């Protein structure tokens, strides 16, 4: 599932008053004018809190740990939560907002978490994750991605 955004929309100019001078800054949109193409859909759709937490944990571990250790930590996280890796993997595949979990799906394929190891599918998902672009307004509207902005890392 892919989301299309209209990339031809020009950022609005906003007047900012600094002391006695007023300056226009291109690209800053007042909060009341911000609308994300996904905003309403995201509010209607609830992502399983475990999936949100797993994704946040995945990102945090990639930022802190050496890569070969991360798959062990993810497996341990799932086992400690007493969750079935196959069910988690299937939830990721069926999620309407799978675009946000593409790298995690690739990771599951690469290390056989909830599925058999499939390097071809892992690569396809990693490549798709690099192609998927999420505009800043979309990211801002998703609390799921709040930790990415804090860490300034996107996987």
UniProtKB/TrEMBL annotation:
Domain of life: Eukaryota
Name the record gives this protein: 15904_t:CDS:1
Taxonomic path: Eukaryota, Fungi, Fungi incertae sedis, Mucoromycota, Glomeromycotina
């Amino acid at each position: 599932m892919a989301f299309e955004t209209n990339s031809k929309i020009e950022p609005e100019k906003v007047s900012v008053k600094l002391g006695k001078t007023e300056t226009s800054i291109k690209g800053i949109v007042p909060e009341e004018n911000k609308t994300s193409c996904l905003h309403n859909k995201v509010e209607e759709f609830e992502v399983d809190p475990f999936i949100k937490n797993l994704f946040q944990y995945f990102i945090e571990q990639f930022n802190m740990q050496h890569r070969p250790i991360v798959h062990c930590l993810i497996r341990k996280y799932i086992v400690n939560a007493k969750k079935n890796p196959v069910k988690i993997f299937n939830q990721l595949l069926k999620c309407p907002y799978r675009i946000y979990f593409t790298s995690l799906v690739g990771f599951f394929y690469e290390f056989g978490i909830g599925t058999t190891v499939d390097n071809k599918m892992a690569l396809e998902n990693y490549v798709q994750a690099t192609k998927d672009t999420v505009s800043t307004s979309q990211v801002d509207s998703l609390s799921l991605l709040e930790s990415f902005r804090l860490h300034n890392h996107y996987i």
